[in-house]
Structures are given as structure tokens and as C-alpha cells.
Amino acid sequence: MTKYKLYIVEDEHLIRESLKKQIRELEKKYLIELVGEAGDGEIALPEILALQPDILLIDIQMPFMTGIELSAEVRKSLPQISIIFISGFDDFSYAKAAIHLQVVEYLLKPIRNHELEQTLQKVMNGLAEKKDKKHERHEQSQVLEIEVKKNLYLNQVFKGEINTSQAISDGADFGCDMRGKKYQVILASNFVNQTFNDYAAFKDKLHGLFSENPALIFSSISSRYIKILLFNLTETELIEMGNTVTTTLISALEATNPITVGIGKVVNRISEIPASYESAQNCLGHL
């Protein structure tokens, strides 16, 4: 597992050596790694920007550049870094500066082993939580990107703006084999509210219902319809699948949102899908 990188800035040599010794012991228990040290802020700043540690342990009172000045400069380039101030002064003005700089903790010298350990545990827990949230946001962003691409693809196919070979190639990117099938368009419209958010809200439900089905492509990233394109080798099986999808769609969504479904006619070619789309629109009253 990835370790959290820690950097010490302390001008008093004996205290810095003591901190290093404490950190070395804690490295045996926790996912932390001491990656550097410095005796003043001017020397520390370029090293910190190069090493990009996760945690800074900084003395407030130092020559050349104080811990507060150093923290302010570091924050400009590394806004997510966790900073722990250490000081021999129990002074509210320092604590106030620490709060302004979003410092995680404020420790007084001499720093006891258990105090340092508890503080680092708290900091690492906070970093882990940030990492989880960042990962979750990244996953959500990826899902949204795929949904937008599916919506664009369906728009192009429904309007005949893409040739057959490209439709087959792009469909394969979504895990769908579009070659030599029968095709049918299903549209679902919410006539009570018609905004992007109204349809985007169905995204998770649709994923639960249809994401494992390789015989259809769907998208709800639209301000007009939930769009579904079905394909199958035989017309009979395609019609049966269309009826099943329609029933499932209404059952899952109509309890909270009035849904009207338009089923397009079955067509034999990708180039004829716009005709199925038009007939589905006509079922919904969009002429």
C-alpha cells in the first residue's frame, strides 16, 4: 500500500533529531515515510515542492522564514497537504494563524510520543477520507463521461448522422455487437418535469436494470427522453425483449415519476433506425 510521505522542518538540531527518531519508530506501525528534513523554511520550500509530501511537521518560530510564512507558500502549490505546527509557545496568536492556514494540528514542545502518534493517526485518517472521496468523485466522473458518450452516440444513430461501419465500431466501444441484427427504439418521456436533472436522476436505476444486458444501449443524459436502442437476431425475440424492457421501465420508474413509453417499429438495418426513432416519437405524440 502507498505510504504517506512526511517532511520535518525544525531549526533546533536536537529537537529535529528527536522527531526523526520518533517518526522512525512510528514507521514500523503506520503507513508513513520520512522523506526529508530541513533546518529552516528557505531550504525546506524547494525540497517540499519537489518531494510533494502528504504531511508537514513544521516549527512555527524559525530564522529566515517562519513556519507560518512557509506554510502559506506551500499551500499555494500543494493546497491538499496536511500541516502540523509545533511550537514552544502556547500563544493564541499562533493558534489563530494555524487555523487561518487550515493547519490540522498544533503541538507544543516537548512533543510526547503518544501525542505525536495520536496526531499522525488523526491526520492519516483525514488523508484516507480525502483519498476515498477523490476516488469516488473520479469514478462518478468516468460514469458521467460514458453516459454523455452514449447519449451522443444514440443521437447520431437515431438521426442518421453516422454511417453503418462507424455505428458498429462505436457500438463495440460500449460492449455491444450491432452487426446483422434487427433494431428497435424505445423512448420514455416524463411529461410532468422535463429538464436535464429530471432524466439524469434515472441514471442509477437504469444502470441497475439494464447495464448487464449486452443487447441494448440506453441513456438518460437528456432533457427530453430516456433513450433505449435494442437489437437482436430475430424480430420475434426483439419484440419480446422490447415488451419486457418497457414493462420493467414502467414498473421501476412510474411509482415516483409518471412515465410514458413509446415503442418504435422493428427495422432491419442500422440505416433504418431513424425510422424506428420517428415511430417511437409518434407514439409519444411528437410529430
Please provide a written account of the structure.
This protein is of the alpha/beta class and 287 residues long. It has 2 domains: 4-111, Response regulator (Rossmann fold); 141-283, Alpha-Beta Plaits (2-Layer Sandwich). 51% of the residues lie in helices and 18% in strands. It has helices spanning 13-27, 41-51, 67-77, 92-100, 113-158, 164-173, 196-200, 203-210, 235-253, 273-283, and strands at residues 4-9, 32-38, 55-59, 82-87, 105-108, 182-190, 216-219, 226-232, 259-263. Strands 2-1-3-4-5 form a 5-stranded parallel β-sheet, sandwiched between helices. Helix 2 runs parallel beside helix 3. The mean pLDDT is 84.
Principal-axis shape equals: rod-shaped
Q: Helix coverage percent of residues?
A: 40-55%
Question: What strand order characterises the main sheet?
Answer: 2-1-3-4-5
Structural class: alpha/beta
Please count the helical segments. 10
Low-confidence regions: none
Whole-number average pLDDT? Answer: 84
Give the C-alpha Rg. Answer: 30 Å
Short overview:
With 287 residues, the chain is an alpha/beta fold. Helix content is 51%, strand content 18%.
Name the features.
Rossmann fold, 10 helices, Alpha-Beta Plaits, alpha/beta, four-stranded antiparallel beta sheet, 2 domains, 287 residues
